[in-house]
Amino acid sequence: MIRAALLATATLLASPTIAEPLRMAVTTSFENSGLAEVLLPVIAKDTGIEVQLVVVGTGQALKLGESGDVDAILVHSKSAEDAFVAAGNAPHRREIMYNDFVLVGPAGDPAAIAGTDTAIAALGAIANTESAFVSRGDDSGTHKTELALWAAADLDPAGFGKWYNAVGAGMGAALNTAAGLDAYILADRASWLNFGNKATLALLFSGDPALFNQYAFLPVSAEKHPHVRADLAETLENWLTGDVAKGLIDGYKIAGEQLFVFNAETN
């Protein structure tokens, strides 16, 4: 279920808050990673901007930007982002950080994906054995990547049986479903590491370049929507691509493992 409610608000620590907040649509994977809790208070302290997060899948985030219901977007689906910019919904796309997708599943690994060489082969093994699989099914960046991998494997989820479970939910909820079903799932590494209900699940496959997961910032077009806070979006973009953000993003770890890698071109 898409959660379009405002789920996180930066707390003012030092600088005077700008009266009207900036609304930024972000992915559930970003929110589930816990990084927002690190970044938002420092953004408020350094810039005075109160950032309200609208936590949805990438597809819904882009729709909110297209309709001018948010001021900026932080998502992870390059082809969809490029189309968003080409349609005049944002003046540009700015890469901020990356991590990767991983395939998680039952520790017993009934499809034996841990021994495969590629993500496509791993998904093929899951399909061949009809092992339980949970899909986000919500037009998110994670879902788009999953569908692209199935297509590359010449497989179509529309023809799958009851072993394939499209839940139409965010990353955390989908992981909970996978834990309950003891099923395979494609997840971003940050959400998986920050997920507390792992049950019998384990990270079984990673490292394929096809699982690269880039996050990008898109300010919503003020030409198309004059009411958006383009000034605040520009300030936030400058902060997200600066040295303080780099230190916080690269320094964010769980159990000693780095969750994101900063790769923005600094101003």
Tally of helical segments: 10
Oligomer designation: single chain
- According to DSSP, the number of beta strands is 13
- State the major sheet: 11 strands, mixed
| Helix-residue proportion | 25-40%
Broad CATH class of the largest domain: Alpha Beta
CATH homologous superfamily descriptor of the largest domain? Periplasmic binding protein-like II
Unreliable stretches, pLDDT < 50, 5 or more residues? 1-16
CATH architectural designation of the largest domain: 3-Layer(aba) Sandwich
Order of helices and strands: EEHHEHEHEHEHEHEHEEHHEEE
Nearest-integer average pLDDT: 91
| Rg computed from alpha carbons, rounded to a whole number of angstroms | 19 Å
User: How much β-strand is present in the residues?
Assistant: 15-25%
How many domains, as an integer?
2
List the helices and strands and how they pair.
Layout: E1 6-9, E2 22-27, H1 28-33, H2 35-47, E3 51-56, H3 58-66, E4 72-75, H4 78-86, E5 94-106, H5 119-129, E6 133-135, H6 141-152, E7 164-166, H7 171-181, E8 184-188, H8 189-194, E9 201-205, E10 212-219, H9 230-240, H10 243-251, E11 253-254, E12 257-258, E13 261-262
What does this structure look like?
- There is one protein chain.
- This protein is an alpha/beta fold and 267 residues long.
- The protein folds into 2 domains: 6-98 and 212-262, D-Maltodextrin-Binding Protein, domain 2, CATH 3.40.190; 100-211, D-Maltodextrin-Binding Protein, domain 2 (3-Layer(aba) Sandwich), CATH 3.40.190.10.
- Helix content is 36%, strand content 24%.
- It contains 10 helices and 13 strands.
- The protein has helices at 28-33, 35-47, 58-66, 78-86, 119-129, 141-152, 171-181, 189-194, 230-240, 243-251, and strands at 6-9, 22-27, 51-56, 72-75, 94-106, 133-135, 164-166, 184-188, 201-205, 212-219, 253-254, 257-258, 261-262.
- The strands form 2 sheets. Strands 1, 2, 3, 4, 5, 6, 7, 8, 9, 10 and 13 form an 11-stranded mixed beta sheet that branches. Strands 11-12 form a two-stranded antiparallel sheet.
- β6 (133-135), α6 (141-152) and β7 (164-166) form a beta-alpha-beta unit.
- The longest helix has 13 residues, at 35-47.
- The protein is globular.
